[in-house]
Amino acid sequence: MSARTHARKDASSEAMQAPRLRTLLLTDLCDSTALVERIGDNAAAALFREHDRLVVKLQQQWRGRLIDRSDGLLLLFDRPIDGLGFALDYARGLKAMSDAHALILCARQGLHVGEVLTWRNSDEAVSIGAKPLEVEGLAKPTAARLMSMARPGQILISAVAESLTHRAARELGERVERILWKSHGRWRFKGVPTPMEIYEVGEVGLTPLRTPKNSAKAWRDVPLWRRPAALATEVALIVLTAGILWVIGRPEPAIAFAERDWVVVGDLHNLTDSAVLDDPLQQALRLSLQQSKHVNLVSEKRAHDMLELMKQSDRAKIDRTLGAQIALRSGAKALILPSVADVGGNLRVTVEVIDPVTQATIYMYHSEGRGQRSLLSSIDAVSSNLRAGLGETLASIKVNSAPLPRVSTANMDALNAYALAQRGFGTGHYRRARDYYMRAVELDPTFALANVGVARCNYYLEEPLLGLPYLEKALSFREKLPPREQVYLDAWYAQIKDPINAYEKWMQMANLYPDDFAAAENTAYALEARNRYSEALVYAKSAASSRYEYDPLALELLGRMQLALGKKKEALAAFRSARASGLASAAVWEAVTLAVMGDFPAAHAIWPDEKRLDVAYFDQVSIYIDEGRSDKALPEIQRLSNGIEHTSTRYRQSVVAMAAAQYAQGQHAEVLATIKATVPEALASISTSADGFSQRSNAVVAASLALLGQRLGHAATAKAVLQTLMAKPELAKMPSVAELVLLLQARTALLEGRASEAVQLLKPRLDGTEAYQYHVVLKEAYTSLNDQRSAANESRWLKNAHGRAYAEFGGCGWCQQPMNVFDAMKAGGK
After folding, report:
1. Residue 137 falls within a domain, yes or no?
2. Which residues on adjacent β-strands are paired with residue 115?
3. 3-state secondary structure at position 65
4. Rounded mean pLDDT of 772-787?
5. What does 296-325 look like in DSSP terms, one character per residue?
6. pTM of the entire structure?
7. Is the dihedral of CA 546, 552, 553, 559 positive or negative?
8. Which of 112, 221, 261, 578: disulfide with 143, CB 3.0–4.6 Å?
9. Last residue of a domain, one of 479, 494, 510
10. Is 434 found in the same domain as 373?
11. 280 by DSSP, 3-state: which?
12. Are residues 668 and 801 in the same domain?
């Protein structure tokens, strides 16, 4: 028996693995034979070697397994998004090679997700030319069909692959905004009984966006009624039917409304003698419509802001004319005009759906009942009819709806207070908003969203413990809420009680409800706490949409991410837009950006009146240090600290900033005294704090002060802090705390003369999300090792990351910012 026969026998006897769901990508280089003929064997060989290097690089980046290759590739991926990432980067890489060599080089690509069977060939079979891994299953010819249908430069994917990749597209990073998704309809494949919907995916400028080619093995699924023989009869019937219908009456107008399109809600037209109904009913209609996953609402604040752009007073009523203009400017498909009137002793709620282009009424729905108690039920009824009229399915309405008294409150005064609280929160007036939320809770203790509002305000005021009882009360009403509000409530509970899991909760909500800007904004905040600025920037841009109710807060967040990434001009523009929308804290960050740009007089001039700030900001202290005026920094932080309640979390955070100011002024004895007085209190508070937010803040305060003490040769406090934190593994793993634990360990090694160990601890963690202080310690370690080149590199990094020194959250409301800025200032040679 020959060796080849033995090999075949060994290979065929290899155990076959159970079917597994995998992603298959097939590619084919277009006109590769003609290319070799045109440029010659040597040039072609060099070109294909460059091509092979590109493929290997992308395999490693996107975790792909190369199964087979000739003119094209067969690759296997565990995750659909990895396969799509490879395909997009492969298309981009071929374009770069084309440009570099003045050639036309592109590929057809087909991507499918399905079950495959795999088995490994024996070593003997592989040695005589067999592939190491064999892949079979219907998914393989399906991917091959997709590839063969594709035009040059085109990526075709199946409906299964499109669903899985589109949902995970944010993992592709910022370029997701340049990716186009286009359906090419249903197609039939030879030998496959059921049709398949085909999609094209590609980047702007790279993908052809053309219908794939029909062939003997793949063709468009054209129903019987669209075939030529039937069309003539159908046309005749249609013409006859249309004529009859036209005689009977003109068809009812309609709006081409698609899922997740936007609407503008106009101001309530109140025809009763009760003016107090205006805000509650307006808010009730919004709360009812916001339950929908089909309809998106342009925020009330943004609609009134657009009035100013139209040279109208922001107090002007949004009626049919103004509302239509706002809808056209914002890209909304419809204008909703609500009204309430007393009709025969009944209160009737009516909503009109207006076409913004013609200003004609397309639909009108109404419901009525006796007395004010009927109003919320009437709004529920007209809201459901409105959603159905705009194309939402009855099943979706049933799942994503709950009666307004359950979602909000049956108390109109409580609803009015809630509406006022929402407006205050959107402009950063957290204390005022908290008072209104608390008033709503007093009027109706079961008002879950108002309870969440109180907790949210206290979180922003750095007083999470005060808000925790309200959040727990809201949780007791969780089962009464619709699905979106349940996810929102769970995420806020994690934000305060269990910060280490907050990111996952907000990300879950952002994926479930991609048009919920609150989810996008809070996901960005959670990423910011992890120093993942580039990822946070994507969500912040989404949240900063002009249609978002809290877009000034999102604009401030967007500017902070841009500042951390060194995009100073873009950050300045974002902060100025947020400040123009009435957000006072945006002026703080505008001043910070001006300081980073070296314009200190302008930074001091723009600093807001502190009466407009609900929280003590330490940024002015940092700006003084940055300016080289540490003599001004210390009195400033002392003044701020004296104005803060001494039992609050924010007071303890102010002590960290005070110690940094003392250090900057050379008052080392005072620094050590501050450390010895504060660290034991912070460590004791960790054990008594009921929420993860406060535990993290106290841990960061203690560790930051201990880190400062290590700079002065004081090691005992650092050891005590490390001992306490390591005894609480969950706390030690929290973002910001984990970084500080590692910094304390590195500085301990540095103090004990083990500089190499300090480098070994920190250097592997340099992935772009590391704390600013990592580079400070590394600079000192390299200097101690007499590695001047590496020390100079770290010094250069510290100088170039000036904006990041200010923007880094640090887990304690930027309390470590003055120390970061001091190090940035020193690295800059000041």
Report:
1. yes
2. 21
3. strand
4. 96
5. EE--HHHHHHHHHHTT--TTS---HHHHHH
6. 0.61
7. positive
8. 112
9. 479
10. no
11. helix
12. yes
Print the domain residue range for 337. 261-401
Q: In this predicted structure, which of 73-87, 122-136, 488-502 has the lowest mean pLDDT?
A: 122-136
Encoding tokens for residue 28? Answer: 């084919």
How many independent structural domains does the chain possess? 6
pLDDT given for residue 175 in this prediction: 82
Do 90 and 205 belong to one domain? yes
CA distance 813 to 655: 12
More confidently predicted of 670 and 205:
670
Retrieve residue 398's tokens: 């049933």
Q: How far is CA 369 from CA 93, 339, 340, 524, in A?
A: 65, 14, 11, 44
Q: Are residues 306 and 350 in the same domain?
A: yes
Show the tokens assigned to 278: 């205006």
Instruction: Provide the CATH number for the domain around residue 206.
Output: 3.30.70.1230
**At residue 2, does pLDDT exceed 60?**
no
Per the model's pLDDT, the better-predicted residue between 513 and 228 turns out to be 513
Residue 32 is classified by DSSP as: H
SS3 of 830, please? coil
The token duo for 148 is 């063969």
pLDDT of residue 251: 47
Q: For 566-607, how does the pLDDT look when each residue is reduced to its tens digit (9 = 90+)? A: 999 999 999 999 898 888 899 999 999 999 999 999 999 999
Distance CA 421, CA 468 (A): 18
Amino acid at 405: P
Are 233 and 270 within one domain? no
* Residue 93, amino acid: G
Relative to beta strand 133-136, strand 72-77 is unpaired
Which residue shows structure tokens 């934000």? Answer: 495
> Do 422 and 334 share a domain, yes or no?
no
Mean pLDDT of the chain: 86
Q: How far is CA 829 from the centre of its chain?
A: 37
317 and 430: one domain? no
**pLDDT tier for residue 11 given thresholds of 50, 70 and 90:** very low
Cα(62)–Cα(56) distance, integer angstroms: 10
